[in-house]
Amino acid sequence: MLFAIDGYAATSIGHIAEAAGLSKSAVLYHYSSKEALLEAIITPAVDGLEGVVASFARSADADPRHEFVEPFVDYLLANRLEMSIFVNQGQSLRGLPVIDRANGLVQRLGDAVSLGVVRIDDRIRFGMALGGAAYTVVAAINWTDNALPSAELEDADEVRAALVEIVTGLLVASRTSVAAH
């Protein structure tokens, strides 16, 4: 996905057509604009993010590993390229409806995470758990020796297990300190 690799602003319909082996008019036949193409590509990932946000709300009193963390990590790993756009370009792409929706969901997740969390160190811990996991997965695009960022991580199971363990540890530590206050 050129939007994730080169950036949305640097990617033209002509670049997309060339990479796909199509003419520019063929791409424009299916997508009226670059924005429409981005929306078609990103919408399924944003829909998935909406499910992740909903799962956090449901897991408030449950084991965070099974109710939230594992689905969150699986979401991140399954949507690495899309997350690269959210994480790296989300602020510069404000005004595009699909990006605004993604940014709103990220904000809702942040608000839900910090609900009832008074201490600043706990808020930072939550932010590092979720944001750090997202950034780590996005940065993993550069970890492979393969030229294509969509290439599978060589140790995907190991990366998944580590992310689940670390994010769970950070969330549980924070929940424990919230319960103690």
TrEMBL record:
Keywords: DNA-binding, Transcription, Transcription regulation. The keyword DNA-binding applies. It holds the Pfam family TetR_N. GO terms for molecular function: DNA-binding transcription factor activity; transcription cis-regulatory region binding. It comes from the Bacteria. Residues 1-49 form the HTH tetR-type domain. Residues 12-31 bind DNA. InterPro entries: Homeodomain-like_sf (IPR009057), HTH-type_TetR-like_transc_reg (IPR050109), HTH_TetR (IPR001647). This is TetR family transcriptional regulator. It comes from Amnibacterium flavum.
